[in-house]
Design goal:
alpha/beta, eight-stranded parallel sheet, 8 strands, 18% strand, binds D-xylitol-5-phosphate, binds zinc ion
């Protein structure tokens, strides 16, 4: 049975109390912390960059899963590595020289991931899959937290799982956007191994710790049976 990791996305956390928000999900059993970097070009929103990664690095020892929604990410790989990122994910749509970018990430000693927008076909992975540690399937259009999960992506996750299994290497399959206890079981069944969750954890009325426990419980039921 594959281990399923939960990666809370701090995009929906209260930035005024970032340390508290992170500590809460870490203590509730988060596996990774997902960090959404946006540049206002590749996606229609701006968030944060290296200083927040460096701040998170001081708060937690958990792997920092840094999702670069930026054009020409090769300009900043070293800076994010220095800030303390463990995993760097770039979008195939933002990288005409994807192979070089992936080699660059690995050359820095980090895990390398590739992300696909909802409209990007899985065939874009064909030539790069053997070189990556992680595939991220966007299940919303990137740019904002709190959007509705695009149902059709479930089938894409299933097909991505088959492609990864055919390679025979332990590549993480991550889903990002609109993930919560209602769709997490189906995503795990489809073959996802990492669940990113922003709004469903940080905007939950019961609070992030309880929301994370519920998400874990929902997927454990699938696992058990
Ligand atoms: C969307 C980001 C996501 C986002 C997910 O562009 O890549 O990581 O924070 O947030 P939710 O879980 O709220 O859809
Ligand atoms: Zn993300």
């Amino acid at each position: 049975m594959k281990e399923i990791r939960i990666a809370p996305s701090i995009l929906s956390a209260d930035f005024a109390c970032l340390a508290r928000a992170v500590t809460e999900v870490v203590e509730a059993g988060a596996d990774w912390i997902h960090v959404d970097v946006m540049d206002g070009h590749f996606v229609p929103n701006l968030t944060f960059g290296m200083p927040i990664v460096a701040t998170l690095r001081r708060i937690t020892r958990l792997p920092l899963d840094v999702h670069l929604m930026i054009e020409a990410p090769e300009r900043y790989l070293e800076a994010f590595a220095r800030a303390g990122a463990d995993r760097l994910i770039v979008h195939v749509e933002a990288c005409p020289h994807l192979h070089r970018v992936i080699q660059g990430i690995r050359g820095l000693g980090l895990r390398a991931g590739v992300a696909l927008n909802p409209a990007t076909p899985l065939s874009a992975l064909e030539e790069i899959l053997p070189d990556v540690d992680q595939v991220l399937i966007m299940t919303v259009n990137p740019g904002f937290g709190g959007q509705a999960f695009i149902e059709r992506m479930l089938e894409k996750v299933r097909r991505a799982r088959r492609m990864i299994d055919a390679i025979g290497r332990p590549i993480e399959l991550e889903v990002d956007g609109g993930v919560g206890p209602e769709n997490a079981p189906a995503l795990v069944e489809a073959g996802a191994t990492v669940l990113v969750a922003g709004a469903s954890i940080f905007d939950a009325p019961e609070g992030p710790a309880e929301a994370l426990r519920r998400l874990r419980e929902a997927i454990q039921r699938v696992h058990a049976g």
